[in-house]
Amino acid sequence: MNPATAANRPALALLLVLSLTHGVVDLTSGAIIALLPALREAYALSYGMVGLIPLFANLTSTFTQPVFGIISDRSEMRWLLPLSLALGGLGLAAVGFVTSYWLTLAAVVISALGSAAFHPEGAHVAHNLAGGRRALAMAIYNVGGNLGYALGPAFAAALIAAFGLRGTAWAAVLPLVLAAWLLRLLPRWRAHEQEAAARRNGLAGDAATNWKGTVLITLVVILRSVMHLGMATYLPFFWIDVLQNPVATAGLVQMTYLLAGVLGTLLGAPLADRFGTKPVLVASFALLLPLQAILSFLRGWPLLIVLFGAGFLVVSTFTTTLVMTQEYMPRSLGLASGLNLGLAFGMGGLGTSILGVVADHFGVTVVMRIIACLVIPALLLTLVLPPVRTSRE
């Protein structure tokens, strides 16, 4: 096999391990979001106070992920991967044992620090192992996170149903076991990653940072994050408070929305590799616009079908925006991931908190319609993004 062909092949086995790790990290994040109805009942919280919980988690990512990204660009810190697993699991476990709302916020911050430490390092590793199939590699990396986040609501609901809020203690078991396994795997992992990087060196040069593209894609991710986190946070309350459905079914509806994104991630990556990331991103937002616009007016099965389509399209953009950010910042891959997954996503958490205040004053239905309106500026910004194409050459 010639060097160019070898460099073009992704390291699938290690990418699958990375995807599993990503899934467990994001399982803890998804579980925390799903605990919001139980926490509202336990501490008699308003919508605004509920919105502060994801806000604290996302502000933690906002300020720390770019820092972790810069560190990742300057030095190899693969030990952050098992450490992040441990922090994510222990923070989630603590949520069920603290005795006040403010201590709950502190536990959420600990778990969020685990997520913040993982994502830039994990995305950097995925890029290094991608060969010439960057969208595919990022999809494998992201699909684990999407699946873990989607299963978080059912995971948390099962723990609460069986053990009450203190059942979150069991959430630390899988992250700690996987962290111990990763520690043993790291030397072999590091050697394989360095070998893949050596094969790739000299086959393609890194261009300068495209600051226009970086700023615009960051704005797109902020808007997308408000839409995604807003839906994940307030969809259960729309389902319970507006549609008068049983509380026990809210987690399943939330999981339907998030699992649809897993399928979107898998199908979107081959299209991005073939047709380019920008055309796929434009098409995703264009198709999302009518679905999100009618969602709050529907009931029953039509609502669930449209909800599935909206989740499919929103989460499918995660891979394309991450790849585009790295393409715009080829010399700062960790920082690019920190901006995309940390700063922009964290600002989405701020928007979600503001939506909580809106829900307190005007109702959850208004929040759902505001989320629909945000698709328009996201689509317009996507149209003016500088073009990039995932290279397979």
Explain what you see.
The chain is mostly helical and 393 residues long. The chain has a single domain, classed as MFS general substrate transporter like domains (Growth Hormone, Chain: A), CATH 1.20.1250. α2 runs antiparallel to α6, α9 packs antiparallel against α12 and α10 runs antiparallel to α11. The N terminus and C terminus are likely disordered.
CATH top-level class: Mainly Alpha
What is the count of helical runs?
15
Distance between the termini: 15 Å
* Radius of gyration from CA coordinates: 20 Å
Average pLDDT, to the nearest integer?
82
Number of domains: 1
**CATH topology label:** Growth Hormone, Chain: A
Number of strands: 0
CATH H-level name... which superfamily?
MFS general substrate transporter like domains
Structural class of the secondary structure composition? mainly alpha
Domain Major facilitator superfamily (MFS) profile: 14-390
Membrane topology: Multi-pass membrane protein
Transmembrane segments: 46-67, 79-95, 101-118, 139-163, 169-186, 207-227, 247-268, 280-298, 304-323, 335-358, 364-385
Protein name: FSR family fosmidomycin resistance protein-like MFS transporter
